[in-house]
Amino acid sequence: MSVAFRRDGDEEHLEPRFEIPIPSGPNLVTPAGKAHIDARVRALAAQVAEAGDEAVITAARRDLRYWQARQITAEVPPRPAGDRVAFGTTVTFALNGRTRSLAIVGTDEADGAVGLLSFTAPLARALMGAEPGEWLPFGGKDDALEVLSIAVVPV
């Protein structure tokens, strides 16, 4: 191949770095979720200030823009009463003969491995507003979910 058809730099071969997508809808967070967002912003701002490598700075600034947007739009709703499934409650339910407990939290707080479910998840939406003892449809089945108990997530 002729030298005339070669590029001068490898920058053109790199994948473009797009902004981290912001989930649509309200940015509801628990008090713990708000503290997590604030900590992420502080840590990333420190990383940007201390980093020497341009690639690290660029990546940290990208993450910082996301977390700053989440910090600005964060809404901590009033503490739920605990008589119905709502944002900020832990619900114990039976699904397909298996009992599980999940806390309904903000999108950035969600982590299924530790029992934190985003309020936007289909399961959370199906459970919202239910009371203990209530049977709910889910996954195309009537009476698929039985709400066993509800507790308010500790602050």
Task: Describe, in plain words, how this protein is organized in 3D.
- With 155 residues, the chain is α/β, with parallel strands linked by helices.
- It has helices at 31-50, 54-73, 122-127, and strands spanning 27-28, 74-75, 89-95, 98-105, 116-118, 135-138, 141-152.
- The protein folds into 2 domains: 21-75; 89-152, Transcription elongation factor, GreA/GreB, C-terminal domain (Chitinase A, domain 3).
- The strands form 2 sheets. Strands 5-4-3-7-6 form a 5-stranded mixed beta sheet. The chain has a two-stranded parallel sheet with strand order 1-2.
- The longest helix has 20 residues, at 31-50.
- It is elongated.
- The mean pLDDT is 90.
Short summary of the structure?
The chain is α/β, with parallel strands linked by helices and 155 residues long.
Characteristics of this structure?
7 strands; five-stranded mixed beta sheet; 2 domains; alpha/beta; Chitinase A, domain 3; 155 residues; 3 helices; two-stranded parallel sheet; 25% strand; elongated; single chain
